[in-house]
Amino acid sequence: MISLTSYAAQTILLASLLLIFAGRKQKIDVFIGFVVAFWVIAVIAIYYRYGADQINFYSNDQVFHWRLLNYYLPNEGIPLRMGEVLSWRYPVILPAYFISKVGFDGILLLKFSQLVYLVLIYETGKRFLVQHNLKVRYWHIVFFAGPTLIIMSSLALRDIALAFFFMTSIIGKNPSLRIIGFLATALLRPHLAVALLFGFLASMAFKSVKNRLFIPILTFATVGAYILGAYMYRFGATIKDGVPLESPYEIFSQLKITRWGANFIGLQFLTLGETVVSASISTLFLSRLIFFDTFLIPISFLIILLLQSKWDHIRITTYFTFIFFYGQISDTDWNSSRQNIPFFVMMGLVAIVGIEARKASREELVA
Question: What is the mean pLDDT of the chain?
Fold first, then answer.
């Protein structure tokens, strides 16, 4: 365990390097400055409060990452066996592991990587909105780089990196970047990559659907995506872990359908037991005052979709990826808000474009 002074010095140094890099061509963006300042305070505060036990704070995924950095990689090297490649989260772990050799704390480097990916999400989201002839406003930022992502950047997890690679695979500037985004997604969360592939295929299939058939075909395709996702999870578990192939349990039960709806609006904790969610229901409800984007984004996304008679490639891909992904996790207790973070970014961007388009249409009617 390093001292608080050393840890704080490393934190400030990394934050300063990011600010220097971000401001090398233009004045530092106000949002980036705010996020970096928050990150420094939050990261130091967590270490001050928990010390080496910070890896047990919020999620035990941080413990797994600590073990990778301090035990598995030093003792076993970098295995290229399929099991390790798909479970050791190389896109975020390896950069932190190699840079830690010069003296930086490994867990701190993982936290810093999440901050970097948050800044990349912000810049990519801005570019996307400009491409849609939109001037970026502060309320827009809540929809693709809001409080959930900002706070999660202070933890040594993979979720913000995953969100960046997920969005890159859909709206990357060129095919090469989209392929890299997809491959990185596969290495960080393989079943999400399978869902994303299904979303791409669904988007291609819907290009030939006529307007008058769109709603009925969409309805049947939604149910089909959910069922196929549930079966694909079982199939994947059989291939990866060698467990016997079984049918998913009660995928259309009241509990599963309730979870589906709760997941859309960020209230999935209401459908999970105490063994999954340790905090009280009242505490989780109050937390939504801070993490309001967990329900604002999916609700806005769904409303925008329902108000449109025809969906573009991005909307179809995002929607069907989410439905297929939810089918995959419907037989597990993993459907936390963290699972939805990659979707928040794309859902939020789709919602912004839809909201602004409807505002422009109303203004034209008034004029």
Answer: 86
